């Protein structure tokens, strides 16, 4: 082979070989697709979890602020129906009055009675206060700060179980993310900072390339996980509290004030109607 032929051979080989030497592995594009799907899924899961916490916080505040007004409306409606039934002596009016009164005095089962009253350590402080006639502490309002939101997102991206390649590592990440979610639900930036330090001091993970069959299975699992999260997100958004929150995501307090004003007007109307019937 002449020197010119050798140069031509080297040139052709250079065109086939990427920078850094070695041919491109057949699984490389599939691995890139898996990494992109993992990143997208994690971001989606972070968004869903963030919205779930917002819905829970808004639900707690909604019950605390508007619950007594709804209860007052139901009581007034029941009393109005009872007076009408007593005057008309109509069986249908009596049935409606009895149903309204029954809704105010439900008869829950044992599990419903104990739900939210105790855990493995015994009665919650709120339950103890109720049973001993002590003042009941109102539900604590939790709204994570911007720092807590930022810490949560960073930890979720770094420690998400979907990034694990082995079952043992997945279990470690799942246990850690459970604590991260609990700290975020409490709105504790201090706890999240401690968890960030704990994760930074943890073992470094070594990425092991997977065979093509495992990568395909991984993509399928990620797709199924996304479908499940989509269903969770839809249920949150279409629920009563989620629907209300989406009406005013930037001013939930103002929305509650508007609803409270409407309920106060309805209570006043019912009280006037009841007074008129009682005369």
TrEMBL record:
InterPro entries: DnaJ_domain, J_dom_sf
Tree of life domain: Bacteria
Region annotation (Disordered) ranges: 1-31
Name under which the protein is recorded: J domain-containing protein
Organism of provenance: Streptomyces sp. R17
